[in-house]
Amino acid sequence: MAPPEGREAVANGHRRCQIHQWCRRKRYRKPRRLIRPYHPKSRIARHDAFYWLMQIALIATAWAFWSAVFDTRDDALETLSASAAVAGLAGQMGLIGAVLTFAPQVLYPEHLPLTAPFGLTPLADQQLAGLIMWVPGMLPMAVLTAFLLRRGWSRGFAA
To answer: N or C: which end of the chain has fewer CB within 10 A?
Structure first.
């Protein structure tokens, strides 16, 4: 009998078994539970309702953040605080990218069997994702922060 695939495999735990077998074969260590004692991503992968709840939460918070950033009326102080928020977001994204890049082991074991078809080891895939988040991902944030600071500067002196 062939192993189950897709949602059926995830629902009955077959994916977890594949991950552990792959870890043993490739000699990857499991992540320490002190770093991530509970990971909601495993629950989200098994249930559609949790997945869509996560997507709605992400869209709602992103909408609230970016609407606050771009809703700077003619006030230089609001523009300055919006640019500080974007700079803080860029710093957080850079920190996560650096952690992913320099981690000595795979941090997300749920993605272990997904990288082999692309010819990457899971650690190399994680490092590549961290570099993309860290270096090119910071450029749009830097440009936006510079634009907001320039706009705030011009509004501050115009008053």
So the answer is: N
How many other CB atoms are found less than 10 A from the CB of residue 93? 15
Q: What is the pTM of this model?
A: 0.63
Q: Decide: 86 and 70 in contact? Cβ < 8 Å.
A: no
- Alpha-carbon Rg for the chain in angstroms: 21
Number of domain units in the chain? 1
What range defines the domain where residue 108 resides? Answer: 6-158
Q: What is the pLDDT of residue 63?
A: 95
Token duo for residue 42: 């495993």
DSSP string, 9-59: HHHTTHHHHHHHHHHHHHTPPPPPTTT-S--THHHHHH-HHHHHHHHHHHH
Instruction: Evaluate whether residue 1 is within a structural domain.
Output: no
